[in-house]
Design brief:
CATH architecture of the largest domain in chain B: 3-Layer(aba) Sandwich
Number of helices of chain B: 14
Distance between the termini of chain B: 56 Å
CATH class of the domain at 12-69 in chain A: Alpha Beta
Radius of gyration of chain B: 26 Å
Shape of chain A: elongated
Strand order of the largest sheet of chain B: 3-5-4
Largest sheet of chain B: 3 strands, mixed
Oligomer: heterodimer
Number of domains of chain B: 2
Structural class of chain B: mainly alpha
CATH architecture of the domain at 12-69 in chain A: 2-Layer Sandwich
Strand content of chain B: 5-15%
Shape of chain B: elongated
Number of strands of chain A: 4
């Protein structure tokens, strides 16, 4: 399994707010979460791509992440004041 | 954020201004789309029944889009569609109005009776549109209300592709529309199994992969883009190659200039084709590092093979310049491929860009200076 840079991800899970509904596990495309003793826990932090699906779908807002698209050309075009459209295929635009 | 009437997805002579305000449900029967088999009568009017087989025309469209033609203008009309012979209790699948996504979905639905609710994502695929917010909670609620879906079906469940989840908050859709969202599998190919097993996705169905076929799917577009940006510098080097200490020499231009063009092309191929193909095996985690390695090895190989003679001072300068320029450009092209991958985070991309871009510029500049210096020794 391909892994990206370690130790950079902004994902945070507050176990006190978690009700263990498992929605984060459902929506995560990289199996970052697991359920442990009726609560979600972060199982594989470096696999997170910060898509933001878990945070958006957490009914108790227990998950926080600075979401965005990991796309260098999108960032570059954004800095150059253009529409930050990156758009390759699978990851971003297929 | 939502701009009207300039979306690339609007078919020209239809869609009056402010597309999102108009009801997307009433398809004109004369659209002439070859993938619409017939129309079925429903309480909201005629709904197009779509084919689950792709025709040569569909494949041609896919190939053209993959090569970068009309890529931002490959959309279908949003609204409700049918596949098979759906009933009021048949499942509803939500999709984007990018024709490539839609084709992908419908060809997996052979023998299935279902409704397809196509949202107006401005011709962008589900995952990308979810990231941008055009495939989102509000769009689903709007799509449900604008089509009058509740008059067509008796249940209140929408199957939304899992990759739409970065834009769709299931609990908010429920609160705003009364419809429950069930996130379906990542890949359309798993939908029949998902439906058969009572809308349950296995962990494998929930995971995004990035195998060789996925990695290479965007390569043509990346290469076309590289050439689009690279032809002008290539032309400049081609012309400059004709200059030596004394004058302009067209024989020199042809000999060295054509090599310069080929080396630039090599850089794009290393970053845009070799890097994606060899992604799991290239060292490093940063795309910039992988691309640098993917450029350095072929560049060394070409110099060692003697394709650029290193006998003279000019030759040595020339060879050194390409040993710097090819890895730097390849690194840059590979870094830009990060957006096409399925596992890079924004934080990671920002981190690698912070050190990689200054390095790429510095190395390429030194390389260019050496290459220009080499002209004076020809």
């Amino acid at each position: 399994m391909l892994k990206y840079l370690p130790g950079v991800v902004t994902l945070q899970l507050d176990p006190d707010l978690c009700i263990g509904c498992g929605m984060c596990i459902t929506v995560c495309p990289h199996a970052v979460f697991a359920i442990h003793e009726d609560k979600a826990e972060v199982n594989d932090l470096d696999a997170c791509m910060e898509c933001g699906a878990c945070a958006l779908n957490c009914p108790t807002e227990a998950i926080k992440v600075r979401s965005g698209v990991g796309c260098a050309s999108g960032v570059l075009l954004g800095r150059l004041g253009k529409d930050g459209d990156c758009c390759g295929s699978q990851g971003c635009c297929s | 954020m939502k701009r009207c009437c300039n979306g690339p997805s609007q078919p020209e002579d239809q869609a009056p201004c402010c597309c999102s305000a108009s009801s997307p449900s009433n398809h004109a029967e004369s659209t002439g789309d070859s993938w619409i088999l017939t129309y079925t009568n429903t309480p909201i009017g005629k709904v197009p029944v779509v084919s689950t087989r792709l025709t040569p025309l569909d494949h041609f469209g896919t190939a053209a889009v993959r090569l970068g033609f009309k890529r931002m203008n490959y959309a279908i009309e949003p609204g409700l569609y049918a596949v098979g012979n759906p009933h009021p209790d048949s499942p509803v699948l939500v999709s984007a109005n990018y024709k490539l996504s839609f084709d992908h979905l419908r060809q997996e639905l052979e023998g299935i009776d279902a409704w397809i609710l196509v949202l107006d994502t401005k011709g962008v695929n589900v995952w990308c549109a979810a990231g941008k917010g055009t495939f989102g909670t509000d769009e689903i609620v709007h799509g449900v209300q604008a089509t009058g879906l509740e008059k067509v079906i008796v249940h209140r469940t929408l199957i939304v592709p899992q990759l739409g989840a970065p834009g769709v908050a299931a609990h908010k859709v429920k609160a705003q529309s009364g419809f429950s969202v069930v996130f379906g599998p990542v890949r359309a190919v798993d939908i029949p199994t998902f439906l058969k097993t009572g809308m349950r996705a296995t962990p494998e169905m929930r995971r995004v992969n990035f195998d060789l076929v996925d990695r290479l799917a965007v390569v043509p577009v990346e290469l076309v883009q590289g050439i689009r940006y690279g032809w002008l510098p290539a032309l400049a080097l081609f012309l400059l190659a004709g200059i030596n200490r004394h004058a302009f020499d067209s024989a020199l231009m042809l000999a060295h200039g054509s090599k310069a063009v080929l080396m630039l092309l090599l850089s794009i191929v290393c970053g845009g084709l070799l890097t994606p193909a060899l992604l799991p095996w290239l060292p490093g985690r940063a795309f910039a590092v992988k691309g640098m390695v993917a450029g350095a090895i072929p560049a060394f190989g070409i110099i060692l093979a003697g394709w650029i003679p290193t006998g003279t001072i000019g030759g040595k300068l020339d060879a050194s310049s390409w040993l710097l320029i090819v890895p730097a450009l390849s690194s840059f092209v590979a870094m830009n491929y990060s957006g096409a991958s399925t596992f890079t985070s924004l934080s990671g991309v920002l981190k690698e860009m912070r050190y990689a871009i200054p390095l790429q510029i510095a190395v390429a500049s030194v390389g260019l200076a050496l290459w220009i210096a080499a002209r004076f020794f020809q």
